[in-house]
Design a protein that fits this description.
By secondary structure, this protein is of the alpha+beta class. It contains twelve helices and twelve strands. The strands form three sheets. The protein has a five-stranded antiparallel β-sheet with strand order 2-1-5-4-3.
Length: 438
């Protein structure tokens, strides 16, 4: 303890003060020899104090260098030193631990915020003016179909127009763009804001897939139009049909030409009423009543019904469900209508003439725990110019088709909280419809 005290800063400063007072006293008494000797001792003591301060300054510099190099394991020894050194070393070690804890808290918060942005469906992209990507989330990668995204130039492989848009878009701008990836066609809404991050100006690009919103508005418009048309047509045809039936009953002795004419009017009116009534299904889909059911048993039953209604001996159907006990929560009856329509369309697309007709039905659970069901066939692929319109009500290329099957399927999937899309396949070798149930 005594040795530690003699080396302490307090003792050395006390010695300096005493020497200063003593040297001043002897100088006032003109005892220059003693005063000179005390002055020399004072300089030696001052040098010892400066040495002590320099040693502590070196420790502080060493500590900040270690922190600057993210070396938080660095520590000063607190054993085998004088008490003042132990106090200083302990204090410096505490400062290091405070920095270490602050860094750990920052890393934890960063992981927390990263988990949040990766769990949302909105795409977030942070880029600088040179096009380098600072941060992105899973939704952005999923929408763009990229496994890794580090620079805007990578968007050339997705869509050149999108690459140009992201490169030149500025804060406050709002744009919409449609692009086709290897799975489907998506409609994106893009908005931008700006900020300074770590001394560098960056743009925050927010990307939303608005396909479902656009489809919902489109379906609502078609429903309103269909209701108006069916209402007006029914109001016009029903009296004509009823009147022709009445005239036939009242004038049984009329000429054969008149009776034939009335009969044609009556039968045509009934046919139109039946035709219009079929379109009413598009505007009167019941609200889903979801329940849990096994996907494999459901698909097997749908295949059995479809093959009974549409016998095609030249077509084989393969079912692959993983896991085997996969369960879906949806309205089984409504989804059954969708599946039967897809199976019927697939069989009719292959036809009777193709010897190796094949329909594949696959179901699985993806990374986001959504149930995905794919219905594919090796019949003639749908041409790109027709693929854009297949979900539009009343659009059909098949003779005698009503053009409402797929539009009803899309409406059912939307009411069920899911989606139906036509998957883009390499070289268009097959037709694949994808049902997704979040």
């Amino acid at each position: 303890m005594q040795k530690g005290f003699f080396h302490s800063l307090t003792f050395r400063l006390s010695v300096l003060l005493i020497l200063t007072v003593a040297a001043a006293c002897f100088a006032m008494r003109q005892e220059w020899g003693v005063a000179a000797f005390l002055a020399i001792v004072w300089l030696i003591a001052l040098q010892a104090v400066r040495k002590l301060f320099r040693r502590h300054a070196e420790k502080i510099t060493l500590m900040f260098d270690a922190i600057d190099n993210t070396d938080y394991a660095f520590k000063f020894a607190t054993e085998g030193h004088f008490s003042h050194d132990r106090t200083v070393n302990h204090s410096l070690n505490r400062i290091t631990q405070i920095f270490l804890q602050a860094k750990a808290d920052a890393v934890q918060k960063e992981k927390y915020y990263e988990l949040i942005i990766n769990s949302i469906s909105t795409g977030i992209l942070v880029i600088d003016d040179k096009g380098y990507v600072f941060q992105t989330n899973n939704a952005t990668l999923r929408m763009l179909g990229l496994p890794v995204f580090s620079h805007v130039k990578q968007l050339e492989r997705v869509d050149r127009k999108l690459e140009t848009l992201i490169t030149h878009i500025r804060p406050g701008d709002k744009h919409q763009i449609s692009l086709a990836n290897e799975r489907e066609t998506v409609s994106l809404s893009i908005r931008v804001s700006g900020m300074t991050l770590h001394g560098k100006y960056v743009r925050i690009v927010v990307i939303n897939d608005i396909r479902s919103e656009l489809e919902e508005k489109e379906i609502e418009s078609w429903i309103r139009l269909t209701r108006v048309l069916t209402h007006e047509i029914m109001n016009a045809i029903t009296p004509i049909t009823s009147l022709s039936q009445t005239l036939l009953a009242l004038h049984g002795n009329a000429s054969e030409e008149i009776r034939n004419g009335l009969d044609v009017i009556c039968s045509t009116g009934k046919g139109l009423i039946s035709f219009v009534d079929s379109y009413r299904k598009f505007t009167h889909i019941p609200a889903p009543k979801p329940s849990l059911f096994y996907v494999r048993k459901f698909i097997e039953r749908m295949v059995q019904l479809a093959t009974l209604q549409n016998p095609y001996p030249n077509i084989t159907v393969a079912i692959d469900v993983s896991p085997d006990d996969l369960i879906l929560h949806a309205d089984e009856n409504l989804i059954g209508q969708v599946m039967l329509n897809l199976l019927k369309n697939a069989m009719q697309a292959i036809g009777h003439e193709q010897d190796d007709g094949h329909i594949d039905l696959t179901a699985c659970c993806n990374k986001t725990e959504s149930v995905i069901i794919e219905v594919s066939n090796n019949g003639p692929a749908i041409p790109p110019d027709e693929a854009e319109h297949i979900f539009v009500p009343f659009f059909t290329t098949r003779e005698g088709g009503s053009g409402i099957g797929l539009s009803i399927a899309r409406q059912i999937m939307q009411l069920s909280g899911g989606s139906i899309t036509l998957k883009n396949t390499p070289h268009g070798k097959k037709t694949v419809f994808v049902l997704a149930f979040p």
